[in-house]
Amino acid sequence: MKGLTYIYFSATTTTAQCAKAVGKAMGLPVNREINIADNHATELPFFEPDDVAIIASPVYSGRLPEPAVNTIKRLRGKGAYAIAMVVYGNRDYDDALLELMDLLKKSGFNIVGAGAFIGQHSIFPKVGTHRPDKSDLSALSEFGQACRERLDAGYPFKEIEVKGNFPYKNPIDVPLHPKCNSQKCKRCNACADKCPAGAIDRDNPIMTDNSKCISCGRCIYVCTYKARDYSGVKYALIGKVFVSAYSKRKEPEWKIAE
Ligand SMILES: Cc1cc2nc3c(=O)[nH]c(=O)nc-3n(C[C@H](O)[C@H](O)[C@H](O)COP(=O)(O)O)c2cc1C
User: The domain that contains 62 carries what CATH number?
Assistant: First the structure.
């Protein structure tokens, strides 16, 4: 094996954290790391049969976020090995892992392992709070080691079956968007620069174009002045129902190709 490439969409860093915990346990030299949330128009790496890629995405409404899909579709696997991961906020991952695996197969990757892991919910942080935690990190590390052992064993990979249905569920548009506090905003444009949907106007970063916003929370995460957040009555009401419905702890699930 030549080396490891990370390709992930991570708006608020939990997906990146999970992918790296797996990669670290695999013990391969890292070639390249791409966060699609930073630059989905970036030049993508070329793969050869001996390369290994960890391809990870958060779950949005039971599916993959659109910018992640658009980038993953542009990859050419050329028989390289892929580890497919989704990270979700303790509600459910529905069809997202199946969707990711289907995209990777179509792109010509050999899938070594596939898993769904839990991170703090980026819209409702009272769900999945502080995850991935110690127990999640040890599951991620176990998954990484198992992927490495399977790669070292080398014989052909059988298809992995994961939960999910095709046609995939229709993703619902999340009716909540981060708002900007104009008193705190210093117009530095970090949010506009980092928004993966181009929803924030550089000339007036106070305003978000909600028709473009994918509610990923990247603008909240990158704002040094804590000027952006979810707020308002609708957010409070939906949050209350959401927290009471989805707080029961879910555990990581993963499979290795036979
Ligand atoms: C728009 C949106 C939709 C989401 N939909 C789901 C979902 O369907 N199921 C779930 O369990 N978590 C859902 N989440 C939570 C994220 O999957 C979770 O917080 C993930 O860890 C975020 O990854 P990141 O920190 O790398 O951005 C959603 C988050 C956002 C922003």
Answer: 3.40.50.360
Amino acid identity of residue 61, one-letter, is S
Whole domain around residue 195: which residue ranges? 179-245
Structure confidence by residue, pLDDT tens digits, 121-177: 999 999 999 999 999 999 999 999 999 999 999 888 999 999 999 999 998 889 999
Cα(71)–Cα(54) distance, integer angstroms:
14
Q: Which atom of ligand 1 lies nearest, measured to the CA of 8?
A: 26
Ligand 1, pocket-test mutation among 33, 123, 242, most atoms within 8 A of CB: 123
89 close to 41: Cβ distance less than 8 angstroms: no
Contact 160, 113 (CB under 8 A): yes
Check pocket membership of 87 for ligand 1, CB cut-off 6 A.
Answer: yes
- Which residues are within 8 A (CB) of 11 and not within 5 positions of it... i.e. 6 or more apart? 37, 58, 122, 196, 216, 217, 218, 221
